[in-house]
Design a protein that fits this description.
With about 160 residues, the protein is mainly α. It is built from six helices and five strands. It comes from Actibacterium mucosum KCTC 23349.
Length: about 160
């Protein structure tokens, strides 16, 4: 597995998008948004070696927001709700604008700081919460962290017989 080229710019995430990326299952607000989210999550974070993808925390619209139909310049037409989500996620994950961490480091921080069942508090107001994919992804991440050693990509290592 080769290291991720250091010349690639980091992916920019607002705080609540760390958990969105964890729970993403291919659904989004609009086709362009979904294609972009798929390219970031599946094409970068979840690909082989994707755990080394660097992420920079931002307090405004980020790389996931780029084609969102709700985006308004550097903000959102639902800015009050987004600010509440970002504040809750920043506090829960100890994130601040300008912080840089790899996707592996982000997943480790999620495991350390957000337990299954916490999403009803941290993600209060998120329209996707009721579908359960984020809670399921969080439970899988916690299960992977407690039942098997992790590879650099945060995937369970299959034990040899």
């Amino acid at each position: 597995m080769s290291p991720r080229p250091s010349h690639l710019p980091p992916v920019r995430f607002r705080p609540h998008h760390f958990l969105c990326a964890l729970g993403y299952d291919g659904h989004g607000y609009a086709p362009d948004f979904t294609a972009n989210m798929t390219a970031i999550v599946m094409g970068q974070l979840r690909r082989h070696g994707g755990g080394r993808t660097m992420i920079e925390v931002t307090g405004t619209a980020d790389d996931i927001c780029a084609p969102c139909p709700h985006r308004r310049s550097a903000g959102c037409d639902q800015q009050a709700r987004i600010d509440k989500l970002d504040a809750a996620h920043a506090a829960a994950l100890d994130l601040s604008p300008g912080d840089r961490l790899s996707w592996d480091e982000a997943q480790a921080r999620i495991v350390d700081r957000i337990k299954p069942g916490d999403l009803t508090r941290v993600c209060d107001g998120c329209q996707w919460l009721r579908y359960g994919m984020c809670e399921a992804a969080l439970a899988r991440l916690h299960g992977a962290a407690t039942t098997a050693p992790l590879t650099p990509d945060a995937r369970p290592v299959k034990e040899q017989p």
